[in-house]
Design goal:
Radius of gyration of chain A: 20 Å
CATH class of the largest domain in chain B: Mainly Alpha
Oligomer: heterodimer
Number of helices of chain B: 8
Number of strands of chain A: 0
Strand content of chain A: under 5%
CATH architecture of the largest domain in chain B: Orthogonal Bundle
Distance between the termini of chain A: 22 Å
Structural class of chain B: mainly alpha
Largest interface: A-B, 27 and 51 residues
Helix content of chain B: 55-70%
Order of helices and strands of chain B: HHHHHHHH
Shape of chain A: elongated
Largest sheet of chain A: none
Distance between the termini of chain B: 42 Å
């Protein structure tokens, strides 16, 4: 088939209207978040002493860390929709959550005696932390991957990984409402592993699913 | 303003008009785009070092990708880098078919693109082989519209289908062709 002829088919297909990206993203992301919240309230729930500990810097740190990861990478996930985006050069935004994390670790180490470091880091419920963050990330990850699939990410693996990290950050934020382990060292180890697993999952899915 | 800027600005204006529903503008957009993509693809394939016989395939696949992903161009952004990125992505796909997975340095813009017309003597691009992978109805629709140049309405009349059904079948066929090309091993 000649290219000139092929263009005829493309022109005839031009009528198909598409809804705006913003609209789709907003409603889908709300659906993904709703899914996570349902899972959260069905299986986990807010910790019973939440109101007593909400001003404790250790607890606040968990939210700040998760939010900083989410906020730093969400714009990358959205930019990845467009093919001309060079994601690699934008990864410098990762500095933000890493600085927050380093600050949290420093605070923990400076304010607690060394004999509590390891026990704090291992916490009481590391397995539940891993499971819960992964489960809470499923909804947002599905939404972000769907959105990216509809877009044109020119680096599908990195785009998938970014979607995973963003979802992991959001999931960690929700899990922090429940999480009874308050040492920043626990967050540094187990939250990071959980978010890392979601990130790798996103990368693997991106490799097979985000090509176009 | 350089030639390059003028070319891309003109393309941007045409695609904006097309997005607003102007089919004639969309045709002009694609007809102007094809010779530029051909020039970029020729340089790209030269750099990858794979057979130049794939040139017209690369052009058609790039046009198809531009078509299916045209909603990802933001009208407030320059169109050159957007088209360059899509062409580059499709050339990397092509390189992958030959087992060359290395990141290839390719230009992302038109700066050296001199419009290059289609050579009528080249062998048939893969597209007709790819068409074998879609359903018979879809194949007939794509063939009538492209090669015979008939409209959706006329196809609907001769095939005893509604216009809406033809429209949907055409769109599905184009999406299926893009998937089939990705899976195609040389």
């Amino acid at each position: 088939m000649k290219t000139g002829d092929f263009i005829n088919a493309l022109v005839e297909d031009q009528g198909a209207k598409r809804r705006s990206f913003q609209f789709e993203f907003g409603t889908r992301m709300a659906a993904g978040l709703a899914f996570s919240l349902i899972v959260f309230f069905l299986f986990l729930g807010v910790r019973s002493d939440f109101l007593d500990v909400v001003t404790d810097p250790h607890v606040v740190f968990k939210f700040i860390f998760a939010a900083s990861l989410f906020a730093a990478l969400l714009p990358l996930a959205i930019s990845a929709l467009r093919p001309e985006t060079r994601l690699v050069s934008m990864l410098r935004w990762l500095v933000l959550p890493l600085v927050v994390l380093a600050g949290g670790i420093a605070f923990q180490v400076l304010t607690s005696p060394p004999e509590f470091w390891v026990s704090g880091m291992m916490g009481r419920y590391p397995a539940a932390c891993l499971r819960s963050i992964q489960a809470l990330a499923i909804g947002p990850l599905a939404v972000l991957l769907l959105m990216l699939r509809n877009g044109a990410p020119s680096q599908p693996v990195i785009a998938g990984a970014v979607a995973g990290a963003v979802s992991g950050g959001l999931a960690a934020f929700i899990y922090a409402l429940h999480c009874p382990d308050d040492s920043a060292l626990f967050v540094a180890l187990w939250y990071s592993i959980a978010i890392g697993i979601v990130t790798v999952t996103g990368a693997v899915l991106g490799r097979v699913w985000l090509r176009w | 303003m350089t030639d390059f800027d003028a070319q891309t600005d003109a393309l941007g204006v045409l695609l904006q008009q097309a997005n607003a529903g102007d089919a004639a503008a969309y045709r002009r957009f694609l007809e102007r785009l094809a010779p530029l993509v051909r020039s970029m693809a020729r340089r790209g394939i030269g750099r990858i070092g794979t057979p130049m016989a794939d040139l017209e395939d690369a052009v058609q696949e790039t046009l198809l990708a531009v078509h299916l992903k045209r909603h990802t161009w933001r009208e407030d952004q320059p169109i050159g880098p957007w088209i360059g990125a899509i062409t580059r992505y499709k050339l990397i796909d092509l390189a992958r078919k030959y087992g060359r997975r290395k990141e290839i340095e390719l230009d992302d813009n038109f700066e050296q693109a001199v419009p290059e017309p289609e050579e009528p003597s080249l062998p048939e691009p893969e597209m007709h082989r790819l068409l074998e992978t879609v359903s018979e109805t879809q194949r007939m629709i794509v063939r009538s519209i492209s090669i015979k140049g008939v409209s959706i309405r006329e196809v609907a009349g001769t095939m005893n289908m509604t216009e809406g059904a033809v429209r949907v079948a055409l769109h599905r066929a184009l999406k299926a062709l893009a998937v089939a090309y990705r899976r195609l091993e040389t």
